[in-house]
Amino acid sequence: MNSMLVVAAGGAVGSVFRYLVGIWAVRLFGTAFPWGTLAINVVGSFVIGLLAEMIARRFGGSTEMRLLLVTGLCGGFTTFSSFSLEFVGLVERGAMPLAVSYLAASVILAIGATFFGLFVGRIAF
């Protein structure tokens, strides 16, 4: 039960961060392209790579720390399910060039950010 509470606490914080980034992106860029979700997925992928490296290899972090930060915080922050829904929405609106651009950018940038997070975690600390 304690593990679920730790994950829930991290998830609550991550979800609030996701909401705030989404609002910020809409205000800054508008709604024609899902910039907020793209930013969240890329930043979240970087952070999950960084935290995975730091917790596991650098700090010998506890299971609770991993559950709080990786499973909870990053899980609550990243929005792959939102990405999927927005991609389908672009396809259904007939915006195929935007849909394909969004798909490619999300996958390539998020995976690249995960590698970059691992790299930074390995050299910086």
Automatic annotation (TrEMBL):
Keywords: Cell inner membrane, Cell membrane, Ion channel, Ion transport, Membrane, Metal-binding, Sodium, Transmembrane, Transmembrane helix, Transport
Domain of life of the source: Bacteria
Keyword Acyltransferase tagged: no
Gene expressing this chain: crcB
Role summary: Fluoride-specific ion channel. Important for reducing fluoride concentration in the cell, thus reducing its toxicity.
Record's protein name: Fluoride-specific ion channel FluC
One BP term from GO: cellular detoxification of fluoride
Binding, Na(+): 75, 78
A Pfam family it matches: CRCB
Compartmental location: Cell membrane
Family affiliation: Belongs to the fluoride channel Fluc/FEX (TC 1.A.43) family.
Membrane topology: Multi-pass membrane protein
GO cellular component: plasma membrane
Parts of the chain that traverse the membrane: 34-55, 67-88, 100-120
GO MF terms held by the record: fluoride channel activity; metal ion binding
Catalytic activity, reaction form: fluoride(in) = fluoride(out)
